[in-house]
Write a structure and sequence with these properties.
about 800 residues, 27 helices, 7-stranded mixed sheet, 4-stranded parallel sheet, single chain
């Protein structure tokens, strides 16, 4: 019999369509395994995408064989910049382009033979789905977490829209790579900072990669310090600064505001106005990343002074683009003696440098900033205190004198939620001259997008929706008077921040998710996807979940119990992309080698959590392995089991199970290859293999190569599905070797091998060894007999 993978895979795909392998019974425990759903790009899937989907499918099938009823759904993250930019390039309406792309993706996903439950499919562009995306926004608005603010935001000149901080990578747009600038716009913001503490603290409870937890912790950026009020000399205004080093306050010799700070235009003196305005404008054209990483320090003195609250000295007020308006208070006190950045600034602009900490309590001239701990000097009544203690002592003094307070600060900023684009969820808000900003009635949801011919971004900061007067003009839900709809749309992250909930109850028209479905399936047991979402989607999803817990929609605080981040598949050591010309399509590989071969090779190319290089020839070796399995089973003559076959069977179960549980799926494949070779050797020695060992091999192989396993299981006489079987269990006692192999040496040189029973006495082993090598010992005197228990006999002879 030949291994005709095309016919076999077509046959079993149809069978599983008619009789799904994943069936609910009262005895089965629920298990939720989820892929990060894709945005349906026009390029279709390549072998890099396949990797994550194969990993999650293998894990889902493994859970089924372990007696679980698995929720393994799929859907489409179809709103947002990727889909709209593709549609613009193809001169198609995004709705049409998205539908076409979904069709292609769906066909390719079916060729993976993943056990997706298409009855539970969701699409973020479906009004029945985004009705609930809008509902969540309304609830956040009602709870004070969604608010409007005019502010300088990250602006992509190519995508012609605002970006959240998390969407800017090394100063460029995360989506298109264009250098990001700043633009002053009215924005909708989500107050994710209200959850900063919980987002940080709850990381400890997660079974997530430490790397991802650290990335989130660093992004949230908790720091302890003090807020201090500096009065402006000659005015009633006060500037509030945040510092992690209140112990250095006596050394603050100047102050720097962010160019966008709200007080700059009020405080600047007439003779410094032109220079200041020019600098503010230039700063607005630079991204936050560029501003933070520029080595050349720039700035402008705005002509005013503040008063150091501890020593009463006047300190000049400067603006500089290395201070950001959205971090801390947008103002910093500068202590050049103890901060490297401040030291460079002070040196360049000839500003005073006063040390207030020294290693031994003695003041010395500084050639660079002293940033270590030490003893307080030049600090009035605080002299002689250890600087680490002074942080608290001076913090307490500031609070007692009502000129500051000890506080906790976070680097995390509120989420810029508006996008000046067409293809996104309409924000369910109206603007009324009488009532102000008003949320729409829940009964009016969903607010659907109007059908338009022109949807290209304007580039002015206005959404294309603003020009559609029939859609914009509406009535106020509160007073019934004339009002205008909000024309900005939500970002692509809005739907993906909660979609995992909807899979459990996708057709519920009355609520986002029922309590019954939520308790049956949530939180997600295993979530599989790329690490590139560590501080975007994963952080936003955690924020949404905590909010929905607070308003009683869910009863858990974290969405994903276990997270696995698969590595990328690279070609020529570069991430696969159409623009790089290194994309490998799975379609021809499936045609030439079969789905099972490609599935196994996706697992075999390297540790699943690491990036792996694609080798076009590698799949041929995997295909040969499956042919070997085919011959092992179809040419086998079933015999009765024996101790050696039983031992090999239990070793096989042990190796595959422990590697599967550790998610070392590349070594699962190598384990199968090793044990298949062992079985072929045993088959040759004994004239066949017992049926139980063959069945065990096939059941273990089923999650990674479901088609060939199912076919061979049927060939050996089974009418029931291989996925109705139970995952085999190993017995450690039956894995133990009854015999051991002893290496025999004569004067340190290899002379042969000897198999003996494990409990054979040392004297008998040495006698047997001498007998084995007696020809080599002829005419020689034995000087020494060395025995290494269970391993080696060395007979030293001359």
């Amino acid at each position: 019999m030949n291994y005709n993978y095309n016919l076999i895979e077509k046959k079993w795909r149809q069978k599983w369509k008619e009789n799904p392998i994943n069936q609910k019974t009262p005895q089965k425990e629920n298990y939720y395994c989820l892929d990060m759903f894709p945005y349906p790009s026009g390029n279709g899937l390549h072998v890099g995408h396949w990797r994550g989907y194969v990993l999650s499918d293998v894990w889902s099938r493994y859970q089924i064989l372990n007696g679980k009823y698995v929720l393994h759904p799929m859907g489409w993250d179809a709103f947002g910049l990727p889909a709209e930019n593709y549609a613009i390039a193809k001169k198609m309406h995004p709705a049409i382009a998205t539908a076409d792309n979904v069709k292609t993706f769906k066909r390719q996903l079916e060729e993976i033979s993943a056990i997706y439950d298409w009855e539970k499919e969701v699409n973020t562009t479906d009004p029945e789905f985004y009705k609930w995306t809008q509902w969540i926004f309304l609830k956040m608005f009602e709870n004070g977490l969604a608010y409007e603010k005019e502010m300088p935001i990250n602006w992509c000149p190519s995508c012609k829209t605002g970006l959240a901080n998390e969407e800017v990578k090394e100063g460029s747009c995360e989506r298109c790579g264009t250098t990001v600038t700043k633009k002053n716009l009215r924005q909708w913001m989500l107050k994710i900072t209200a959850y900063a503490g919980r987002l940080l603290e709850d990381l400890a409870d997660l079974d997530w990669p430490e790397k991802v937890k650290k990335m989130q912790a660093d992004w949230i950026g908790k720091s302890y310090g003090a807020e201090i009020d500096f009065k402006v000399d000659g005015l009633k205004d006060t500037i509030k600064v945040f510092t992690t080093r209140p112990d250095t306050l006596f050394g603050a010799t100047f102050m720097v505001l962010a160019p966008e700070h709200e007080l700059v235009s009020k405080l600047v003196t007439e003779n410094k106005k032109e220079e200041t305005e020019k600098y503010v404008f230039l700063s607005s054209t630079k991204s936050s990343v560029d501003r933070m990483t520029d080595k050349e320090k720039t700035g402008v003195f705005i002509g005013r002074y503040a008063i150091n609250p501890l020593n009463g000295k006047k300190v000049p007020i400067w603006i500089s683009d290395y201070v950001l308006a959205d971090y801390g208070t947008g103002a910093i006190m500068c202590v050049p003696a103890h901060d490297t950045r401040d030291f460079e600034f002070a040196k360049k602009f000839n500003l005073p440098i006063i040390p207030v900490i020294s290693k031994d309590g003695v003041a010395t001239e500084l050639l660079e900033a002293y940033t270590e701990e030490g003893i307080m000097i030049n600090s009035g009544q605080f002299n002689g205190i250890k600087s680490n203690d002074a942080k608290n002592v001076i913090g307490d003094y500031l609070e007692a004198e009502k000129i500051g307070k000890k506080t906790t600060n976070y680097k995390l900023r509120d989420w810029v939620f508006s996008r000046q684009r067409y293809w996104g969820e309409p924000i369910p808000i109206v603007h009324c001259d009488k009532c102000g900003v008003v949320g729409v009635k829940e009964s009016d949801l969903p607010i659907t997008l109007p059908d338009v011919k022109s949807y290209e971004p304007t580039g002015t900061g206005e959404s294309p929706l603003a020009a559609i007067t029939d859609w914009v003009n509406t009535t106020c839900p509160k007073c019934g008077g004339p009002a205008k709809r909000e024309t900005n749309t939500m970002p692509q992250w809005a739907g993906s921040s909660w979609y995992f909930l909807r899979y459990a109850d996708p057709h519920n028209k009355n609520e986002l998710i029922s309590k019954k479905a939520m308790k049956e399936w949530l939180p997600v047991d295993m979530y599989v996807g790329g690490i590139e979402h560590a501080v975007l989607h994963l952080l936003y999803a955690r924020f949404y979940t905590k909010f929905l817990q607070d308003i009683g929609v869910v009863d858990f605080k974290e969405p994903f119990t276990r997270l696995f981040n698969q590595g990328m598949v690279t070609k020529n050591n570069i991430k696969m992309s159409k623009s790089k010309g290194n994309v490998i399509s799975p379609d021809d590989l499936v045609k030439n080698y079969g789905c099972d071969s490609l599935r196994i090779y996706e697992l075999f190319i390297g540790p699943p959590e690491l990036d792996s290089e694609w080798d076009d020839r590698g799949i041929e070796g995997v295909h040969r392995f499956l042919n070997k399995v085919w011959r092992l089973v179809t040419e086998n003559k079933a015999i009765s089991s024996n101790a050696e076959l039983e031992r090999e069977c239990h070793k096989l179960i042990y190796d595959i199970t422990t590697r599967m549980e550790a998610f070392n799926l590349n070594t699962v494949v190598s384990g199968f290859m090793e044990h298949t070779n062992n079985l072929l050797d045993l088959q040759k020695r004994f004239g066949g293999i017992d049926k139980k060992t063959i069945e065990t091999l096939l059941v273990l192989l089923a999650p990674i190569a479901p088609h060939i396993s199912s076919e061979l299981f049927e060939i050996i006489g089974h009418k029931d599905s291989i996925f109705d079987q139970k995952w085999p269990v190993y017995d450690k006692k039956k894995m133990e070797d009854k015999e051991i192999e002893i290496v025999i040496q004569v004067s340190g040189k290899m002379a042969g091998k000897l198999k003996v029973s494990k409990d054979t006495a040392e004297s008998q082993i040495i006698l047997a060894a001498k007998e084995l090598v007696k020809a080599r010992l002829a005419n020689k005197n034995i000087i020494k007999e060395i025995y290494v228990p269970g391993r080696l006999v060395n007979i030293v002879a001359k």
